[in-house]
Amino acid sequence: MHAETTARPPSFARVSLAIITSAREANLLGNIHGGEIVKLADSTAGAVAQRHSGGPAVTAALDEMAFLEPVHVGDIVRTFAQVNWAGRSSMEIGVRVEAQPWNDPSTTTLHVASAYFVFVAVDADGAARTIPTLAPETPEEHRRMREAEIRRAHRLAKRQEIESGRSGAS
To answer: What's the pTM?
Structure first.
């Protein structure tokens, strides 16, 4: 599969998924297990990465996952994801997670979690492949791209600092 190399706006690959939670996803406190929320967010991000890159893409990193509110059994959980930044073969996908009780549409939807995933597009042999660049169109998309560039710079600086510390250790 070969991806087009023309730039794509974040709207091209934007995805939303939804589930109704059940007792089988609950933790010992009776709330939905955080791992279930991570899995749903990763699945949503994976669909976005596949769409943007025009082929297979794999999770390379979960840069950040913030749990803001508990999710309860019976909640409708919705994820919203889009590409925030795209490089040569990697991309950052931002995911927003919201929840609302299944039986009460008048209840305010809560922002329950946010995450930033890094995906790498791969070919049939598992090697990184080139992806389209990102062409943000709105002020919010430009803001998201700037913030993604900051997170990327921090990831790279942290890795370099760790590697230089290890090379000096005996």
So the answer is: 0.91
